[in-house]
Design a protein that fits this description.
three-stranded antiparallel β-sheet; 19 strands; about 15% strand
Length: about 575
Amino acid sequence: MHVKGKRLLVAALTIALAGTSVACSSGGNGDSGGSDSGKKQDPATPAKQAGGKYDPPVTITTVRGVPSAATFKNGETIEDNVHTRWAKEKLGIEIKTFWSVVNTNSAYDTKLKLALSANEPMPDVVHATGEMARLLIESGRFQDAGALFDKYASESWKKAMAEDPTVWFEFSKDGKRYGIPALDYDYNNDPVMWVRGDWMKKLNLSAPKSIADYEKLLDAFTNQDPDGDGQKNTFGLSVGFKKAYANHFGVSWLFGAYGAIPGMWQKQPDGTLAYGSIQPGVKEGLAKLKEWVAKGYIPKEAPVWDEAKAGSFVSAGRAGSFTGPYWSEAWPMGDLTKNDPKAELQTFTLPVGPSGKGTYFATHPYNGAVFINKEMKNPEAFFTYGNFLFDNFADPKAGSEYENGWAKGYDWDMVDGKVTTDLAKIPGGGVRVFFYSLLMTQGPRIPSQNIKALVNLAKNGKPETPYERYWSQLAPPIEIQSSSNVWEQRDRRLMNAYTGGSTATMTDKGDYLNKLEMETFSKIVFGDDPVDSYDKFVQTWKSQGGDAITKEVNDWYKSVSKK
């Protein structure tokens, strides 16, 4: 597998992963992983040797949703592998799998829901996302994990969490933080402008800094035969609106150029939250999209395309621009140079609006959370484990035991006298077993670390830390370049201010309102409905449940954001 494919596999595994963990009655001594000399020891709590190893070992059992793409080597399993052995030898923590399931078609959530509804014993530490996380909160069987985090988490873990304090909001209720957010890398889904650089050179086009600049590029790619086949068969922009008009593969930046992004709850000057889809700027964005469709800049099939189809249209040589994350050249545009070896891609920051300003869709840096059972007697044991990972693995130091990776022969090895993280070059085949055997499903991730490493590689031309060296082997040059665009435009990113899941009215009216929104937008942009029909949509949305939803959203926001 080539480098891009390997990196995407890593991303797919971490996104698909839904492992959870359980700490049983044996537990830690209440510190954050270091020596406890001089402290009084609870007789029921195992002592730690110097360096933080439990003796006798603490048993931590776990339940897991294992990705279907998970692979093992040397006869290992999810129950017994290089990581479970490491935890016991290094920390005195014995990890045992309570139950596991291949996580296809949400099998993990299904099994966990059944156990919850049947009032079966719950694991002591559970990882959950979305609706499953909310069910755990409402069950009343899990404790204030935020208070435990404040007490036991190491400074490095706390510093990483503090990069975005709002990550706690989704898992907060009645003044308590029930889930410890599973931090992910920030900026990974921020879109940039992808353009056929070879077409730009041929047509003598400049980088599109504004919407007006970009329209010149759209017109040239549509009408000036950039592929040189003598036919009018190319488009300026390939995009898919099947899922949304403004996600990380959509045109959030176009709407944001006029001050509002559909589908997102945005904080207003008075501190309240308002739904982006009914703000005046969206009407201007729809008008511009309708104009672009009329001029032939966008394929008329876009309403039924998703990002995979839109990306493949670019890789087939049919469109000259696309917006997506810094890794979009690998997917969904992965076949471009295979189909046309002379094709070149370039990336730019997203165009700004007439005012010189603009915003775009971005996501929060976490993927679910860890919940701790009220019946767990010694939850500090989990923090001993997590603290060690954040202190030693998140940003490994040169010369340390972990500077090259997790384990020699698995995710790294020495080949021809050099360190390699290329799984195909590792004797016996490399595997990243840690992505599905860790008790912390995302691993120890510092949100800003990944993008900063890529930006440093672009700036310095060579890695200066072990973490940068890892990414220098994994990321192709185009991704290192495009990450700099992400960093340059970071002040314009906008994240959804509402992360509280479905409110009562959303559950009752949400499907209807979402369908109304998508149909209205598509009829305006691709159909015969006038732009002014948007005004009727706003009135209907508000009267048919939208006003009630707005109140519920703001009640939630007040409850989680108050100090």
